[in-house]
Design goal:
Blueprint (H helix, E strand, L loop, with lengths): L5 E4 L4 E4 L4 H29 L3 H45 L14 H9 L6 H33 L1 H7 L13 E4 L2 E4 L6 E4 L2 E4 L5 E3 L4 E9 L3 E9 L2 E11 L6 E2 L4 E5 L9 E8 L2 E3 L11 H12 L7
Antiparallel strand pairs: 1-2, 3-6, 4-5, 6-13, 7-12, 8-9, 8-11, 9-10, 10-12, 10-13, 13-14
Length: 322
């Protein structure tokens, strides 16, 4: 039962009952409801901000699991990338070196238009950056694996021809050690004996008495046997596999163009024809249209000590004989 309130009226010198108007009641109800609404809003905001709903808790667990999987996949992809890099290293520094093959080109990993479209399709999601980065890594490794597979196919074919390659590559001296007087001049810049200028000497000069036998340094076919100005009487052998060898200043040529030749077979005799100042054979090796240092190819008929001695002699600067 509601309490009845009174107030003292000094004009009447009496107590009178307190009356409550309808507007007062409405205002009180409205104030109560407004306060309740504000309090409820505050409570809802705090609950929404700091307390997860069951659905949000499930989504958060899924996100954490997703991030864990991304980290795991990144780790695995990095490990695979390391394995591929090791294969590329072996390919370049061991396998291709054995077969004298050109190095594998691993720099031209161009991104295809299809991949660009694929990356664009992955944009616009909460974790797009992680997904795109992961996808690019996978595509890069896939491209490298494809190139490496093709390289191994190429090396496999080279291995089948390895026996022929080893027989063809120039691998001995053109003059027997017992007949060799000395190595007069090596590969590199030397003083020309006639012109007295500092010129590049593109081979090695082996001095020996006139008429000393000259031998083919590897299997092949005689490409040319002619008298050609500075080289005098000279023979060029096509060994295949991108290799040629040249023997200059012969007194007499025994081999003929087109003739098949074996390593160690007699092809001519030491002389001093052409631009020459003394009997010797000027010997060159050409690989892939580039003249290379023959000293790196004397590995079939020399001991380690003999090979090192020849390297030291050939490295000395001085006059060449041609």
């Amino acid at each position: 039962m509601a309490k009845i309130k009174y107030f003292y009226n000094p004009h009447k010198l009496d107590f009178e009952k307190v009356g409550t108007s309808i507007w007062t009641i409405v205002l009180r109800v409205f104030g109560f409801l407004s306060a309740s609404a504000v309090a409820g809003g505050i409570i809802f905001f705090l609950a929404y901000s700091f307390i997860d709903s069951p659905k949000e808790r499930i989504l958060k667990r899924e996100n954490e699991q997703y991030k864990l999987q991304i980290r795991h996949l990144n780790k695995k992809i990095n490990e695979i990338g390391g394995v591929v890099a090791e294969l590329q290293n072996r390919d370049a520094n061991i396998y291709r070196a054995i077969f004298e093959a050109d190095p594998l080109d691993i720099t031209s990993n161009k991104t295809s238009l299809a991949n660009i479209d694929k990356y664009k399709n992955l944009e616009g999601f909460d974790n797009s950056e992680d997904i795109i980065a992961l996808t690019k890594k996978v595509d890069e490794i896939a491209a490298k694996v494809g190139k490496q597979s093709a390289s191994f196919d190429e090396l496999s074919n080279m291995a089948k021809n390895k026996k022929a390659f080893l027989a063809a590559i120039p691998a001995i001296q053109p003059i027997s050690n017992k007949d060799l007087t000395r190595i007069a001049s090596g590969f590199g810049y030397r003083i020309h004996p006639i012109f007295r200028t500092h010129k590049f000497h593109s081979g090695i000069d082996f001095t020996a008495p006139q008429g000393t036998p000259i031998y083919a340094t590897g299997n092949g076919r005689i490409s040319s046997a002619v008298n050609g100005n500075g080289y005098g009487n000279h023979i060029i052998i096509n060994h295949g596999f991108g290799y040629f060898s040249l023997y200059a200043h012969m007194s007499r040529m025994k081999a003929r163009p087109g003739q098949l030749i074996k390593r160690g077979e007699l092809i001519g005799y030491v002389g001093s024809t052409g631009t020459s100042t003394a009997p010797h054979v000027h010997y060159e090796i050409i690989k892939g249209n580039k003249k290379v240092n023959p000293i790196n190819y004397f590995f079939n008929d020399l001991t380690e000590a003999e090979y090192q001695a020849i390297r030291d002699i050939a490295a000395r600067e001085g006059k060449s004989f041609d």
